[in-house]
Predict the structure.
Amino acid sequence: MSDRDLKLSNYDFELPGKLIADRPIEGRHNSKLLVYKVASNEVIHDHFYNLPSYLPEESLLVVNQSKVFPCRLIGKKKTGGKCEIFLLSTRPNEKGLIKALIKTSSKKNIGDQFFFEDGLIAEIKDIDDGNFFVQFNREDLLSYLEQNAKIPIPPYIRNGESDELDKSDYQTVFAKDVGSVAAPTAGLHFTEEVFQSLEKRKISRAEVTLHVGLGTFAPVKTDNLKDHKMHSESYYVDSENKEKILNHKKIFAVGTTSLRVLESCHNGDEFQITPNEMKDTDIFLHPGVEVKSINGLVTNFHLPKSTLLMLVSSLIGREKTLELYQEAIDNQYRFFSYGDSMLILRDE
C-alpha cells in the first residue's frame, strides 16, 4: 500500500452515463459477471447464472437477508405546502420516536405536524444533528408504509424517483428482516434457479442481517481516508447461521454489507460470533486494512470515491480495482444498484 491509496481523489473514475443501469436486466441472473482470480491474475467475462461453476464445492455463500421498506412519505404541511419524510428506521427509540429526515421549503421545529393519505399524521418531537425524531398517530405504521410509501431507490437512479416496479425489483429474493433503506444490491442477481445450481454443487447459504442505512450513500468528505468516520449500521446473526459460518472453511460474502458483518465478527484469527444479539458496526474497509474473514466476494460496480469502492480495493488493491472497472466500462458492463456483478476469488 502507498500513500496514494489513502487519497480520496485517487478513487475517481469516469463513467459514461449510458452505463448507469436504471432498471435490472430481464431475468436477474442474466446480468454480466466479471470474474477476477487473484492468484493467477486472470479475468473472465461471463454471466451471473454461471456463478456456481466458479465456486468450490462445499463452500458457503453468506447473504444479507435485510429487507428494504418503503420509507419515503410524501405529504403536506398545515399550510398546504409539500413535505417529504424519509424514515431511517422502522424501530422506535426508547421514547417511542422514529428517526427521520424531513424535506420542506421552510424551517422545521419541534411540534410541527405533517399530514398524509388516510389520516396519517407525523409530529416532530425532537431534533438532533440534522435528524428529526417523529411520532405517528397510528401503531400499524409498517403496514401503512407498505401500502402508501415509496421505495427509496438511490438518487443516481432516475433521480431517486421510484415506482411500483421498484417494490419488487429493488428487493432480493431472500429478503426477510425489514429494516433497510437501501438494498444489499449484490444479492439482486440471485434467483431460485441459481440457488438450485449452487445446491447441486453442494454450496450452502448462510443468512445474516445488516440493516443498510442512509449512510451508505454518504460521500467521503476527508481527503485522507484515515480521517473518515464510517457510519454505523446494526447487524444480527442467529444461532443456526453462526454454526454454518463456523463449520465452513471456504466462505464467500455476497455484497459489501455481508462482508462488513463477517469482518466485524472476526478477530483476525477466527470468528467470534455472539448469536441472537443486535450489534452495531462502523467498520471501514480500505487499503491498509487486511480482510481475513472471506475467500471471495460477489459485488456490484460501485460509485467513484465511494466507501464501497474502497472496500473492494481492500481486497485486491486500488490500482487493480480501477483497472477492472475500466475493463468493465470497455466491455459495456452496467453499473450501480441495478447493474452487473463481479466475483473476486482470492485463492483457488
Q: What stands out?
A: The mean pLDDT is 95. The chain is about 20% helix and 25% strand. The first helix runs from residue 141 to 148. The CA atoms of residues 254 and 305 lie 21 Å apart.
